[in-house]
Each structure stands twice: as structure tokens, then as C-alpha cells.
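hey team, just a heads up i'm posting the complex here instead of the shared drive bc the drive is being weird again. everything in one block, sequence lines first with there labels, then the predicted structure for the whole assembly after. its two chains so it's a bit long, scroll down
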Amino acid sequence: MQQLSVRHLLGIKDLTPADIALIFETADNFKEVLSRTIKKVPSLRDITIANVFFENSTRTRLSFELAEKRLSADVINFSASGSSVKKGETLLDTVNNILAMKVDMIVMRHASAGAPHFLSRHIKANIVNAGDGTHEHPTQALLDSFSIRERYGEVAGKKVAIIGDILHSRVALSNIFALKKLGAEVMVCGPITLLPRYISELGVKVELDVRKALAWCDVANVLRIQLERQQMKYFPSLREYTLYYGIDKKLLDSLNKEITIMHPGPINRGVELSSDAADSHHSIILNQVENGVAIRMAVLYLLASQVA
Amino acid sequence: MTILLKGIQIIHPASSYHNQITNILIQNGHITYIGPEEKTADQVITEPGLCVSIGWLDMRTWVGEPGLEYKEDFWSAAQAAAKGGFTEIMLMPDLQPVIQSKNAVGYVQQRAVGLPVTLHAAGAVTVDVQGKDLTEMIDLNQAGAIAFTDGEATIQQADVLVKALHYVQYFNGLVMQRPRDKYLSQLGLMHEGIVSTRLGLKGIPALAEEVIVSRDLQLLEYSGGKLHFSLLSSAGSVEKIRQAKAKGLAVTCDIASYQVAFTDEDMIDFDTNYKVDPPFRSPADKAALIEGLQDGTIDALVSAHKPQDTESKKLEFDLAEFGIINLETAFAVANTCLKEALNLENIIQKFTTAPRQILNLPIPNLNEGEPANLTLFNPTKKWVPQKASTASKSDNSPFFGTELQGQVFGIVHKSNLVLNPEY
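-- predicted structure starts here --
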């Protein structure tokens, strides 16, 4: 059996293009499984996975949990709002307590960039990063690229614009890494205060005008405005953001071409995307959600083959 | 007690024995003979490759006493200092409580009795290092505070810095400022650049340092007095200070010796032992720091010793405290990383005469009849710092397990010979 080059999925940065291809091929198989009447396979029987979420999450946690259950893994969930430090227990203690109950893999979301990397230096279990601060969200980027591949047959050569708060977005960063590895052209677009100053050094185009970005791209990946992750003010108001960066059906119709709209969710309807745009034929937002389960099954399956 | 240093090379440009390999006899804490004769002594040091210079002085040591003794106390700091070749260290005042009264200075002096190294106290510039009201700096100076700084805190308010620079002119005093704009550096975790972008970590732009350097140089021109910038990190700061010195402003500066060891590119795996403030900057900044050391723009090298207990470091990157220990490694790091850029006597000068000139302290001499304030070291000996044998109470160092060149053999100070047990 082919194996990933990594023991953990900490970030897209660490993956080779061959790793991504392997994950996609495995996800193709699982997607076929998910269309069957009996959607469950015994692949991860006897593997115990803990979903450890130190930040609020609905869809990512559900998607992981479903992926784990479809693979017949035993699943436990732990969630704590705020950091564990605030509760007086360190992250390492919390996770070691969970691991003491003979858990094989950890799926973790944490508000601190690098938290899963820190953990990987101190524990033996395989780790899947389900989002670390403003750093990476690798499974989201994988499912996004997988969805583009599904729509267009391949990712290479496609023009993808990532629009919104790039500065605070782990989805943007992981998407840039994944899309570049797969040969896509990438543009970031947003108010300049929400674009990291050195972002173009990652080999992406930078555009401040959302109309120009949409006119350029084949795929627009529209990000949520992460008000909760902004610890200071980066733009004057949501009203002005919506006026100048919001995407609606009228704007999409004014382009003389068909583009694909993606969004990692949850959508702030009427802010970054209007309802008529989100629900239009341009949108593959719900396909992304569906593909998320297959991608996470593939990642867990491939990493589980390395469980000691 | 007599000690004979046999066949030792003297590194001290001000001495007529500079670069000579000779014998030094020390009797009751004084140098009584330098020359070819092999005098008898209670203790004879015959270590091949050994050099001797006047004692090294670290003008930026942060010790947790009083208040945070679990990170470092005077005793452990003194052991680490001696092991690192320092005979004198200047302590930062930002403690709990802040060193801002005669009593606090007296406490430091009293606790220094019996320690192998001299402890100098720096007093706070502002009450509780809050950057608002001046402390009683004349009285503090009378009590023995040799310089004034708010330690880690930057004096943000221009009018307060002007007042301080004016006020200390009464005793020709020195104000030390660690330049960092509070708002531009807010929530920052590492150097702002492509690496921070890739890591999703909020950056501390070089600009945050440079705007304060620019501003303060202008304030210094207005107020007069003496200003010292601590812990520079950016190329822009070095250039501004170079120009100010050319104009004749009374400005001096230092960098942490570890700044010449790393850049932001060394931070890729979120290791909190690389989390320092100011941060490791770009390779171009590092090159500019080295150039600044070469042409004398940067006067001194400091340890910037900042002990942190495990509970403050073994954490998620953003939650971990800034700082690393460096008393034991300060010289070796500089000697290892600067050997292409500076010759040995220039490196030693940055740890010996330069900080004393900045602080207006007497410079010991290396002549017969002088008190022995000496550091013995081997600049070519390779060694590997080990976590298990560190003298500090804390073990937050990125240098454990890394081979360094240049090891301290021991110090002669306060009539005692203190040997590095690891040599």
C-alpha cells in the first residue's frame, strides 16, 4: 500500500504533490463508498480517535466525526471553549490525559498557530490538524482543491482567487500552499489591511478590486470575515466591506463568463456573499461539504496505516 | 592565596603585554607579577591555549530576584555569569517590586556579598516602569544605580524620555531605552516577513523599532544627555545610529550576542526557544548587525539573559514567554558566529571596555599592582552546552546540543578563582 510521506497532517506545507495525489485517489474511492446504501467500511476498526476542539466548530467537527464513524473507528469528542491554559491545565496535560485512555489519533483544532506542531514533539499519537490559529487548515484546503478537481477535471492551470480576510485566514494560507503545489494560479483579494504585507512572496497575485479579481479567475473562494479572530480593527465597517467586497448574483452575471463560487462556511449571508449568489448555479459550496467527509476519511485512513 | 597563570596569552590592547604569552602571578586578589619567571604559587594553572582578558561585563542580565526567584535568583545568576566568563553583571530593574528606591538598590548590593561576581543595579526611569512619572533618579544614583532603564518596557511618551534625558544630566547619567513602538508591535510574535506569513504568526515589523530609534535620536538632539539603545535588531536602526554618531550625538547601543546566531528562517517549527524580543530578523538585518559591530556603530554585546521556567516556555507558541538564557553562552555564540567578521580582541572589547565606557565605570587594567579582575578562556576550544549542566535555574536555550567554539575556563575576581566545572 502507498503511504504518505508524513506521520501527521500538520499542514499542507509538509505534503508533497504525490501525497496530495494519493489523498485525492483515496478520497475518490471513499466518495464512491459514500454513495452506496451501506456507507460504512471496517478500515479503522480497533482505532480510537479523539476529536479535541479548543475552538468552536460545527461543520469541521461533524465532518471529522462522520468520516471516523464511516471508517468504523471508535470516536471520543472533547471540546473546551477558550484555551486550556485558562482552565489551569496545559494543552500537553489535557492531551496526555486523553492519550492515557489508549487513544491512537488526535484530531485537534486550536486557536494557537503551531499548537499541533508543539504537540507532535511531545506525544506519540498521529495528529491531524483541524485548524491552528491563523496558520493552517489542511483538510479544508484538500477538500477545496478536490472540489475544483471534481468540477474541472484538474487543478493545474486553473485561476483561483481567494477573496476576503487573508490576514486571519488559515483556510487562505493552506489553500495557497495546496493550489501552488497542484499547479494552479492563485490571486488574493481583499482590503489591503487584511492582506499580509509579504503575501506576494508566496507566489500569488494581489488584487484590491474584487471585480477585477472575479474577471480574472475561474474559481472564487470567498472567505468568511473572521471578526472573532481580529484582535484589533482592520477595516471601518461590515457595511463598507459588503458594499465594496460583497459578491452578489448581479456582479456574477455582469462577468461575461461562468465562474465557480466556493466558500469554506459558515457564510455570513449578505456580507461576503449574498443569498442569490450563494444559492446560484455558480456555487459548489455544498459539494465542498460533501467532499469534506471523503477527504477526511482518506486522510485518517492513510495516517492510521502508520499507527504504531 | 597565590595563583600562577602559566603560559597564558594576554588579550588586552591597552596593556603593554597585549598578545604576549607569559606568566601572571596573583597574590591576595592583586596582580603582582607579569613576566617570564615561573613563580611558585598555591595554585598553578597550566592549560594549553588559554587566554586572559580583563573581566567581562554584561550590561543586560535579567534575574528574577526579587519576585520571580523561581526563574533565576542572584545566586544562580552569579554561577551562570561566572561560568560564562562575566565578572560583573548589570541587573535589569523590571522586577517585582521594581528597582526604584534606595532600599531596592541596597538589597541588590547586600545580596551580592559573597557572590563570585559583582552585581550592578540599574534603576527604573519611571515609577513601576509604567512610562509616566520619573523615579528619584538622583537619589538612586547616589545609592549606587549605575544606569536607568525601564528594562523590557519602552518609554513610549516622548515628553517623559526628554525629561529623563534632562534630569540625569545632574550626575552625567545614562538613560537606556529598548526601542519598540507599543502599537506597531502589538500582539506580535516574531519578525514580520515572509516566514511569519508562512507560519500564520503575527509579525513585529522592524518599523516598530526604527520609529522609536528615529524619534529618540531627535529627542536626544533636543535634550542633550546620553542615550543608549538596548537590544537592536534591525538594519534600519543600525543605519540611523551610524548617522547620529557621525553627527556627534552621545548615543551608544548594544545587541544580544544571540542575534548574530539566528534569523527568522530558523523558526519554522514553532520552537519557543527561538521566541525572543526583539525577534530574530531577516538575514539582511543580521548582516547589518554584523556590519554595525565591525564599524563600531554597535558598541557592545550583551547576554540579554532572560530565564523563563518550563511552565512559561513549554506551551503553544503565542502563549509562551519571550526570552532565552545566554549568560553561559554569550561569548561562545559571538565567538562562533563572528569569527569571520571580527578578530578576537574586537569581540572581547565588546564585552569588556565598551560596556564600561558606556556605563562610565572604571576599566580594570592588566598590569602589576592592579586588582585582578580577569576572565580566562580558550577561544578555539569547542564545547556543547548541555541542558543537564546549566548553572541557570531555567533551561530556555536554543543552544543546547549545538557545538560552539570558545569556552570559558574561569574568572579571577574578588580575590577568588572560580573555575568552569565543565571545562
